[in-house]
Amino acid sequence: MLSMLDLDPKRTQILAIVNDSFEIEENKLQLASVVSSYDENFSHFFNGVQVEANENPRNILKSVDLLIEESVRYYYGVHKYYPENLVIFRGGKITENIENIVDIELKKIDCVLEKINSSIKLTVMLLNKKPYEKRAYISQVGQNRLLSNAIFDSRCEPFADSFDLCSHFNRIEPHMSTKYTVIRNDSMLSNEKLINLAYISCQNYFRKNHIDVPTSFRYAEQCKERSKLHINIFCKERLNEGAKDVSDIQLLIKSINNTIKVPFNLKSLPYYC
């Protein structure tokens, strides 16, 4: 199936980013989770989590460059060379933030890749769950469904192309598809190849349930949820200790990041990915 791509799997890293917002003692914060592949089958993963202030514009990650740098350097540590292609699936609360992601996050990513290795080609897709559109044509083979609404609409995002895809039939939400909005395509992949890339990225999930998002994206969501459990424990402990409001938000963020930090030697184990 990897032969369907125009990218060399041995030189390609797939990375997913998700974020979620929360509040502690009236401080608005957000949690970011990143999971990235580091093998040619896109089946071994490395993860990172980070808490930061959720300042205007909301839900835009100021530390996205640090998280991506850690992932790309881990890839280098395994192979002794950097990936030629970096594919990023960006999820989370992005519906109203596409322009800010382009203007802020993409620029940070460009800067860090320029510092690491300027020859890395970047492909970035934003993910959003949405209902099937009535005009979408569904071709079904077994339980695999591909929505041919891939005529690459640019009505809503004038600077981007988008398509709908359901790589596995979703038993829980059979009416839902995943919308992919392409905001960067340095490799000049055709529309068909972009669809293949998104589709293949969902096919190496080995757990029981079907999924309709890339595997790295699902693991990033799981890392995020696991980190939120640790944050909830952190909040309860502060409440039990009678902690008062923290005037220094950076001190609070540092304490939370120390709570959810995963030891480096465990970051590539399946339990954490």
TrEMBL record:
It holds the Pfam family Piwi. InterPro entries: Piwi (IPR003165), RNaseH-like_sf (IPR012337), RNaseH_sf (IPR036397). Residues 26-226 form the Piwi domain. GO terms for molecular function: nucleic acid binding. Gene3D superfamilies: Ribonuclease H-like superfamily/Ribonuclease H. Coiled coil: none annotated. It comes from the Eukaryota. This is Piwi domain-containing protein. The lineage of its organism: Eukaryota, Metazoa, Ecdysozoa, Arthropoda, Chelicerata.
